[in-house]
Amino acid sequence: MCRSCATAAEPTEIPADLERPDHGLSRRGLLAGLGLGVLAVNLSVGTSTAAAATAKNGAWADPALGRFPAGGHYGAPRGGASHAGQDVSNSVGTAVYAAAGGTVVRRSWGGGLPGRTGNALVISHGNNQYTYYGHLNAYRVGLNAKVSAGQRIADMGATGNVTGPHLHFETHSGRLGTTVNPVSFLAARGVDLSGGWSRTDPGASGATVVVIQHLMSRRGHGLAADGQYGSVSVEAVKRFQRSKGLVADGQVGPATWPALVYTLRQGASGSHVRALQAALNKRSARLAVDGGFGSVTTGAVRDYQSVNRLVADGEAGPVTWRALTG
Ligand SMILES: [Zn+2]
Q1: CA of residue 129 to ligand 1 center, whole Å
Q2: Which residues form the M23ase beta-sheet core domain (predicted)?
Q3: CA of 192 to the centre of ligand 1 (A)
Q4: How many CB atoms lie within 10 A of CB 5?
Q5: Sign of the C-alpha dihedral, residues 184, 189, 193, 198?
Q6: Are residues 240 and 144 in the same domain?
Q7: CATH code, domain carrying 103
């Protein structure tokens, strides 16, 4: 884990252009661009409960698979300061993904932030939210690159002041330099940083919703794969949940996902394979979503498993699905 990665005692000097990376865009436009239009409406009427619920909107993704090392939690003591992120340990070369769509605003040693060491990326997600990825072995995106949620951006490493390879992951809210607990930040957005199943609520949109819709079609609830988790899709999921004896709340989470996914291998064909291909594409696979599980899809599954340190058998079972949709 990190030896340092402390929170700065002094406020960070941030260049004006980095403090306002969204210059020229309205707040409404930024929220819409992130698929947060519904959240904005709920915030404006002050319904914090509804806002928290609609925050599980499919816009966020698990940045890396691994384990939480002892002492690697947010706020852990670091020589008089506190640990500014959550460490996720795995081997050098493990894939690191963008936690949400945005723009790469830093690609440098420590991200130019005090107390940080090693190769680092900072992504601005708009709405004054940032994520930081530290101790990277290799960059897979350039400075100023536009990235999507789940896109591979780097390889895990051990650069900087560390005891072993891991991702040092930070979430900043309000301004760059103001960290919040990444575990609770992501949990509020439907992502389990410790690697559990994600949660997607009614009103969500994006690639994971497409995955859900394809799976639902295979389950006999024909849905248009439009990526919008609107009332037609939600009612279908509630019917599916009732049919499985689950709580019919419309949230696709740890109870519903295992009932929804299929174990798939080469030779399979249909909407469940489209779901798998769409899930792989969210993680930078670039497959044709044709519903045919041939050698190309097998290779993509194996590659995904390999770079995430899963058993690389080319078969999509529950562990692979949980990681892909996390
Ligand atoms: Zn750390």
Answers
A1: 19
A2: 82-182
A3: 18
A4: 29
A5: positive
A6: no
A7: 2.70.70.10
Residue 280 belongs to domain with CATH number: 1.10.101.10
Whether residue 202 is contained in a domain is answered as no
CB 238 within 8 A of CB 250: yes
Q: What is the pLDDT of residue 75?
A: 97
How far away, in angstroms, is 1 Cα from ligand 1 center?
6
How far, in Å, is the centroid of ligand 1 from the Cα of 44? 35
Binned average pLDDT, 10 residues per bin, the chain of 326 residues: 59 34 35 35 37 75 98 94 97 98 98 96 97 98 98 98 97 97 98 98 97 98 97 98 98 98 98 98 98 98 98 98 98
Q: In this structure, are 296 and 221 located in the same domain?
A: yes
pLDDT of res. 5: 61
CA 66 to ligand 1 centroid distance, Å: 14
Domain extent at residue 232:
207-324
Residue corresponding to tokens 């497959």: 287
Same domain, 169 and 251: no
- Read off φ and ψ for residue 208, nearest 5 degrees: -70, -30
Single-letter code of the amino acid located at 25: L
